[in-house]
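2024-03-11 09:14:02 DEBUG pipeline.ingest accepted 1 chain
2024-03-11 09:14:02 DEBUG pipeline.ingest length=151
2024-03-11 09:14:03 DEBUG pipeline.predict start
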Amino acid sequence: MHRLLLLAATAAVLSAPRAAHAQSADHAAVLATVNAFHAALERGDSAAALRQLAPDVRILESGGLESLADYRDHHLPGDIAFAKAVPSVRAEPTVVVQGDVAWVVGSSRTTGTYRERAINSAGAELMVLSRTAEGWRIRAIHWSSRAVRTP
């Protein structure tokens, strides 16, 4: 019995670094996908942004729900124009990976001018990703923002 416990404990200790490395690699890959999406918006590359999205992605914002086609045809051009015009500073997000599913929770602060209107807003973002044969893809995005009032 002791020998079996010793073997099990040894196996757990030896596999922990591999599990931690796999988790770290997944964490980095998930974050790279989210960052690639944001970077594509900021440089105006709609094709690169769309490559980060799963075909069945759902995007929730301002009380609306959009499919990939809805987002591509209606919302994406506005997101690109806004991202190119107004800089956002993102806080370091929280990344959780559970097997083939991950979620990223982050916040941002956006200040600048867009279409002659002053922008000063705080944002929150939740992205849900899944592992695919092509790598991690964004399956859902939920964005919310609010104006920051200055005294």
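2024-03-11 09:14:41 DEBUG pipeline.report The two ends are 69 Å apart (CA to CA).
2024-03-11 09:14:41 DEBUG pipeline.predict end
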